[in-house]
Amino acid sequence: MTSTNPATPSGNAASNSADITADHGRDHRRVTIGDVAERAGVSIATVSRAVNQKYGVSPKTVDKVREVIDELGYESSLVARSLRNTRTNVIGILVPGIDPFGAELLKGAARAMQETDFELVVYAGGLHGESGWERRYLSRLSGTLTDGIILVAPTVLEVDATHPVVAVDPHLGASTVPSVDSQNFEGAQAATRHLLDLGHRRIGFLAGRSDLESARRREAGYRSALADAGVSFDPTLIQAGGFTEETSEVPALTLLSLADRPTAIFAANDLSAIQVLRTATQLGLSVPDDLSVVGFDNIPESAMTDPPLTTVDQSIQSLGEEAVRILVDLIERPDRAGRVAHTTLPTSLVVRKSCRRLEQP
What we know:
CATH superfamily of the largest domain: Response regulator
Strand content: 15-25%
Largest sheet: 7 strands, mixed
CATH topology of the largest domain: Rossmann fold
CATH class of the largest domain: Alpha Beta
Distance between the termini: 57 Å
CATH architecture of the largest domain: 3-Layer(aba) Sandwich
Number of strands: 16
Structural class: alpha/beta
Number of domains: 2
Radius of gyration: 24 Å
Order of helices and strands: EHEEHHHEHEHEHEEEHEHEHEHEEHEE
C-alpha cells in the first residue's frame, strides 16, 4: 500500500467539508460547499481554500467567493465544523496490479488530487484475473480509512460500500455505479481503418481478455471497420492475446506463421503490440517493411519501441483524473448519488513509424 500527500497534512485536509447555511428569515437550509462552488463558478477545492485562507487562490477569486457568500447570506456552519473529524479526507484506489495501464492511471489521479484537499492511498492486490477481488478488499478501506473508492477494472460492480464508489474500465461496462472508460469501439475502428487506408486487407487482430468489456468493444470495432470496407472477416486472422506480453507470445507467433500471413496486425493493447514487434524480429520480418503494427493505449513504452508504435491514445491519465473528479464531487455533494452515470472519454490515433502503405502487386 502506498500513500501520497499532494495537498495538505491530514490534520488540516478535512477543512473542505465545511457546510454552509443560508439564512432566509426562519428558514435555515443547509447546503454543501459544492453549492457555493457552483454559484461562484469555481471548483469545490477553490472554495475550500478561499474559505480557509489557504495558498493557491488569487485575491480576485477569494473576493468572488466571499461576494457570493455575502450576497446569498451564507455563513460557515459551526455544527459542520465540529463534524469535520468524521471525514478522513482520503481517497482510495483499488487496482488489480501495477502494470503500465495502472501506473499511467495513477499518474492522472495523483495530478487531479493536487486540486483537492484529499490524500490518496493505493491498494494493489496483484489479483489479475481473479473474479470478485474488489468485494474482499473494498471492506478494508471503505468507510474507515477512506471517504470514497475508485475501482480499476473491477470484475463485479454489485459491491457493498458505505461510501461513494467510482469504477474505471469495468469488466461488464456501465452499471448503476458511476463509471469511466474510453471510446474502445471507436478507437479500434480508427486503428483498423488506418490500416485499410494504407491498402491492407489481411489484417490480423490480437484480441484482449474475453472477460473485459473494453476488449470486447475493441474486437467489435475491428470487425465493424472491416465490414464497412467490404472486407470479409477471416477467423484465422484473430487470436486471443490476453493483454500481456507473455500471453501474447504464442498467439503472435501463430498469426505470423500462417502460410498466408497477415500484412498488418492490430493488437488490442500496446503490450500485445510490443510482443508482435518482438516476434516479428525473431522471425526475420521487418516492421514496417514486411508487417505493419498498431496498438491501443499509448503507454509511454509505445513511443520507445523500434520502430515507434502507431497506437490509439485512450488518455489513460485522463481516466484517472476524471474518476477523481467524479468521486470528490460525490463525497462533497452526496445529494448527487444516483444521478452520476457513465462517462466515456474520447480516443485518438497516434501515427508513428510502425505502419506503411502496402504496395499493390
